[in-house]
Amino acid sequence: MIGIVRPVWNFRGFILGSVKREFQSKYRRSMLGGAWNVIQPLSMIVVYTLIFSQIMQAKLPGVQSQFAYSIYLTVGIITWGLFAEIVGRSQTMFIENANLLKKVSFPRLSLPVILTLNALVNFVLIFVLFLLFLVVVGAFPGWVLLAMIPLLAVQLLFALGLGVTLGILNVFFRDVGQTVTVVLFFWFWLTPIVYPAAILPEAVASAMRFNPMYPLMSAYQGLMVYGTMPDWASLWLPLVLGLMLSALGVRLFLRRSGEMVDEL
């Protein structure tokens, strides 16, 4: 494992430079530039708040706040977006960087690190605005917010392990990429993000225990809406899957890295 991590660490300058270049290139030809990093997530929060809190007056059971449902929805979409971005982009990262892989000598596993850091930058910008919104409406969760750190660690482990494994498989079997897009779409709707789990029939609710993203989403929503600490024991599935998929991804990479360049 040290033999894998050390080369990536030695290329940290290359990694951070790549993250910076991608962030800058996203808005290079835009008149507002980096301001779009604020405008886009702020627009999402405002729209959800106006539609669900003011117009539809949607409510969550056991919560009196008129903003509860918009908070529930926003935190679910923000955190799911981080997961979907890492998995979705990981499955094409080796294919999209084929020329770089063939012409430049660098640790190949730098690519998922760069991708993850870019996704985290986007997430942090949106999440900070979301926290400011919570402060304004008087719904800031307080010290329990610190539980976000281990939750994000578990989610990143799961997303990165899944993404790297799919990215390697997609080099050899291109249908993998198309399948992942469809699966992520259905996975989103099969996870209680836009609807509360309490409305699900008992049989469906019982089946949710096989969805590794369900305990993560429930933990995030519990933190932000109810101010409650996560049920750490419920996170065993995404944690175990994350460890297994990460080990599988590294094993596949070590065995197939040479063949990957030829396939690209």
What is the approximate shape? globular
- Mean pLDDT level: 85
Task: Assign the structural class, choosing from mainly alpha, mainly beta, alpha/beta, alpha+beta, or little secondary structure.
Answer: mainly alpha
* Gap from first CA to last CA: 26 Å
Q: How many helices does DSSP assign?
A: 12
Residues in helices, as a percent range: over 70%
List the helices and strands in order. Answer: HHHHHHHHHHHH
Number of strands: 0
Report the radius of gyration as a whole number of Å.
20 Å
What fraction strand? under 5%
Number of domain units: 1
- List low-pLDDT spans: none
Largest sheet: none
Main location: membrane
Family: Belongs to the ABC-2 integral membrane protein family.
Transmembrane segments: 34-55, 67-88, 109-137, 143-173, 180-200, 233-254
GO molecular function: ABC-type transporter activity
Q: What does this 3D model show about the protein?
A:
With 264 residues, the protein is mainly α. The protein has helices at 2-10, 12-26, 36-55, 68-90, 93-96, 98-103, 110-136, 148-172, 175-189, 202-207, 213-226, 236-263. It has 12 helices and no strands. Helix 4 (68-90) packs antiparallel against helix 11 (213-226) and helix 8 packs parallel to helix 12 (236-263). The mean pLDDT is 85.
Task: Outline the secondary-structure elements.
Elements: H1 2-10, H2 12-26, H3 36-55, H4 68-90, H5 93-96, H6 98-103, H7 110-136, H8 148-172, H9 175-189, H10 202-207, H11 213-226, H12 236-263
Helix pairs in contact: 2-7, 3-4, 3-7, 4-7, 4-8, 4-9, 4-11, 8-9, 8-11, 8-12
InterPro entries: ABC2_TM (IPR013525), ABC2_TM_bact-type (IPR047817)
Membrane topology: Multi-pass membrane protein
GO biological process, one term: lipopolysaccharide transport
